[in-house]
């Protein structure tokens, strides 16, 4: 196996790396390949350590206050993050091999640095950025800014030495992000799929204790409201259901207020953000995991990390109909699909009681399958 002893990789990130699970897993894999990895992260909360080492991953945080869920504030402050990141990278450029952008908001910075310093530009597309805005605003149509961002995403994908993304077709009716990029002119041979699968060491199989009620859990960032309303409507009528929210996000307060005002009789529990290594404990409290979102273009091509985490824990998952996630749960018989209507959600909840994900999925869909892909991206 080819290793790259001591060669530096800077991974650029617009969150504080608490850690960001996908970036964390990729960084650890690159360290196993012999790279010296530093995550240059934007600490928008300004309450994290400036420098630390997380399991061999160096983390340099740039503290610049910025409001979450405010694109105006984000884009106003982004140039300042860019400037400070450039100064840090240039100062520490000796031995540099690659600049790794995580999503579009760091792609222009990574491209500039790669050309300035003569190193590789790796563009890692976790989400289609233009469609992420659609999710936050809960609109299906693209405005001028989103169309502009889409064009820039494709331009940067074409400029990159390698593109990493999260999904491709599973052979069903729906296409993944790879097909989306290739159909817009990105060379297919430089697009690699690194699935959003979990490391099994952080998701041990533990016998779950059945509660008196059937618990439906949502574990992750709460970015929308409308996708939960059918679930709330069913839970209001069916007192056998309990809802569990684990995590934070821009819409968490709206969800809590909505439940208080319109659904006071729903049995619901909120748990704040938990460390990544403790997430599995909350899956063990769930009888089913809710992986439903407003039906944007990005969601049609996504395979949510909570879906993968759920199936390796042996817990069935509820996903959007007419999506790649529907292809997945049909192919592997590990969940049910639904649209965002109360009647359809009630039917999905009746069906999911009988679903048990096959145990072989734990061996098939875990992080190990991504290690060889990252080796090809960086070492070939």
UniProtKB/TrEMBL annotation:
One GO MF term attached to the UniProt entry: glycosyltransferase activity
The Glycosyl transferase family domain, residue ranges: 209-356
Gene3D superfamilies assigned: Glycogen Phosphorylase B (3.40.50.2000)
Keywords on record: Transferase
Superkingdom, taxonomy of origin: Archaea
Listed Pfam families: Glyco_transf_4, Glycos_transf_1
The Glycosyltransferase subfamily 4-like N-terminal domain, residue ranges: 23-196
InterPro entries: Glyco_trans_1 (IPR001296), Glyco_trans_4-like_N (IPR028098)
CDD domains in the cross-refs: GT4_WbuB-like
Protein name: Glycosyltransferase, family 1, putative
């Amino acid at each position: 196996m080819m290793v790259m002893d001591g060669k530096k990789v800077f991974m650029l990130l617009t969150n504080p790396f608490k850690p960001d699970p996908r970036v964390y897993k990729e960084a650890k894999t690159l360290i196993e390949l012999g790279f010296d990895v530093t995550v240059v992260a934007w600490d928008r909360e300004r309450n994290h350590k400036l420098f630390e080492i997380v399991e061999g991953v160096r983390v340099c945080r740039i503290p610049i206050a910025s409001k979450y869920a405010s694109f105006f504030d984000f884009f106003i402050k982004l140039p300042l993050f860019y400037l400070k990141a450039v100064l840090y990278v240039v100062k520490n450029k000796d031995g540099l091999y690659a600049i790794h952008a995580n999503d579009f908001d760091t792609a222009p910075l990574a491209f500039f640095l790669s050309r300035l310093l003569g190193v590789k530009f790796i563009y890692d597309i976790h989400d289609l950025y233009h469609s992420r805005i659609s999710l936050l605003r809960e609109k299906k149509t693209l405005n001028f800014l989103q169309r502009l961002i889409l064009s820039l995403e494709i331009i940067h994908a074409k400029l990159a030495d390698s593109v990493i993304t999260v999904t491709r077709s599973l052979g069903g009716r729906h296409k993944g992000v790879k097909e989306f990029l290739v159909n817009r002119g990105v060379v297919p041979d430089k697009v690699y799929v690194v699935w959003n699968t979990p490391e099994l060491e952080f998701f041990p199989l533990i016998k779950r204790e059945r509660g008196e009620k059937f618990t439906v859990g949502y574990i992750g960032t709460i970015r929308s409201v409308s996708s939960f309303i059918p679930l709330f409507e069913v839970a209001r009528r069916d007192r056998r259901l309990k809802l569990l929210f684990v995590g934070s996000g821009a819409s968490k307060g709206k969800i809590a207020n909505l439940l208080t005002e319109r659904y006071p009789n729903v049995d619901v529990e909120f748990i704040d953000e938990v460390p990544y290594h403790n997430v599995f404990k909350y899956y063990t409290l769930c009888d089913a995991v809710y992986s439903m979102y407003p039906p944007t273009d990005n969601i049609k091509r996504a395979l949510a990390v909570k879906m993968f985490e759920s199936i390796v824990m042996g817990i069935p998952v509820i996903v959007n109909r007419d999506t790649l996630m529907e292809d997945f749960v049909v192919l592997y018989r590990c969940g049910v699909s639904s649209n965002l209507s109360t009647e359809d959600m009630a039917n999905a909840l009746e069906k999911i009681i009988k679903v048990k994900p096959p145990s072989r999925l734990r061996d098939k869909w875990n992080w190990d399958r991504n290690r060889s892909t990252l080796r090809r991206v960086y070492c070939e």
